[in-house]
Amino acid sequence: MLGTLRAFAVPRYAEGLSGRASKSIRAVLCAAELEGELLVLRFAPRSGHVREIEDRVPLSAQGDMATVHAVGRVLRLLRAARVRAPRDPYRMVREREYALGLARRCLGAVVQLRLARRLSRVLTIWTESGVQHIRGLLDCIETADGLSVLRREGRGALHISRRELIRYETTTEEDFVVAAIDS
Prior knowledge:
Elements: E1 8-9, E2 22-35, E3 38-45, E4 53-58, H1 65-81, H2 91-94, H3 96-104, E5 110-127, E6 130-135, E7 137-143, E8 146-151, E9 158-161, E10 165-182
Antiparallel strand pairs: 1-10, 2-3, 2-5, 3-4, 5-6, 5-10, 7-8, 8-9
């Protein structure tokens, strides 16, 4: 599911990507690490101006559709790297360190990434303590006592007190997310 993946920011000068809804590019797996329930895969494109592509693969509850798609992406990565797939692919969900070990065996593998375009909102707030950028914005509501901020991906709501708030602004960023990994 596209909504569960972490996107990477595409610089404005990355011509060829920004005008299309989807794009297919060749890339090399250059890093793999765990961040909680996420297997973070980093790819270096073989050509173009995009510096790095980050795919945040959710390895959470077995049977969840996002997890089913995530396991499928990891299996296609294993196939591209010619690494033997486990008999029980959902072992990667139960044992994230095992999934990390498999992904690290794929370092250097060349894959075809299908990227999908996504627009996301960013909230910039200026407070007494400085400037803060909040990505993954769902909505912000100005109330009598401040600003209530709702964020994506199940992250908790924020409240910024009117006493601290100097000003705020919302903008839109264009991102691309990994829709599929092909060998």
